[in-house]
Amino acid sequence: MKMSREAISLCALNKTLNRVEHKLQNIKAQFTVLDSSIQKLSENFECQSTTLENQMDQNEIWISLLEDRFTSVEINLFYSYICETIHYLHSQVLEKLPDLLI
């Protein structure tokens, strides 16, 4: 009678150990998937961090440029330079393509 109880106990213990081992394998597989996901997220965050840093640098450059206000004399000089450049380009185009002359 003692032997059959011990055999039943060993059989129950063996089944319990198998269930625990199976659960541990499932948990290990889930941790592997989670670890892979964390790795991918970390890589994505690093890329986004680099992009944000570059954007911040560009924003700082534009802000510094916009902080400098031009005087009306500087603006007029700039406009006159643009007008002269456009006039020069127009004359060059007409020189190269005389058919455009009306």
TrEMBL record:
<dbReference type="InterPro" id="IPR027875">
    <property type="entry name" value="DUF4547"/>
</dbReference>
<dbReference type="Pfam" id="PF15080">
    <property type="entry name" value="DUF4547"/>
</dbReference>
<protein>
    <submittedName>
        <fullName>Single-pass membrane and coiled-coil domain-containing protein 1 isoform X3</fullName>
    </submittedName>
</protein>
